[in-house]
Design the sequence.
């Protein structure tokens, strides 16, 4: 994945599970609606990423403009969570979690725990 570029206003959108074998995603099945800041990222700078969650851009308005920085969305594949092996270790990332209320949501907490557990142990 690339680096953070921009995000539109906080909106509700549908999430798609891309890797149902990765643990902690049970609560996101069936295009769960989720409210968050939908980060847009620059072009890929890292190889070997395993995308596990994506936001469906057809379910929200991805357009944003901050001065000269303009975002039109990321297209058909807009990942918001992924993992990969890195330099002998493991890395997990989620772009979810910008609203305080999600920290009492069981599906989000399971997602965080599973990602941290995988990064710490390599076990799914």
Sequence:
């Amino acid at each position: 994945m690339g680096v953070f570029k921009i995000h539109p206003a906080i909106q509700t959108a549908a999430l798609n599970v891309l890797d149902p074998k990765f643990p902690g995603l049970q609560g996101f099945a069936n295009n769960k609606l989720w409210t968050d800041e939908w980060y847009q990222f620059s072009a890929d700078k890292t190889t070997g990423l395993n995308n596990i969650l994506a936001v469906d851009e057809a379910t929200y308005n991805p357009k944003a403009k901050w001065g000269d920085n303009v975002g039109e969305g990321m297209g058909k594949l807009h990942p918001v969570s992924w993992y990969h092996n890195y330099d002998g270790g493991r890395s997990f990332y989620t772009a979810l979690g910008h609203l305080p209320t999600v920290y009492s949501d069981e599906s989000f907490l399971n997602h965080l725990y599973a990602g941290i557990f995988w990064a710490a142990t390599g076990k799914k």
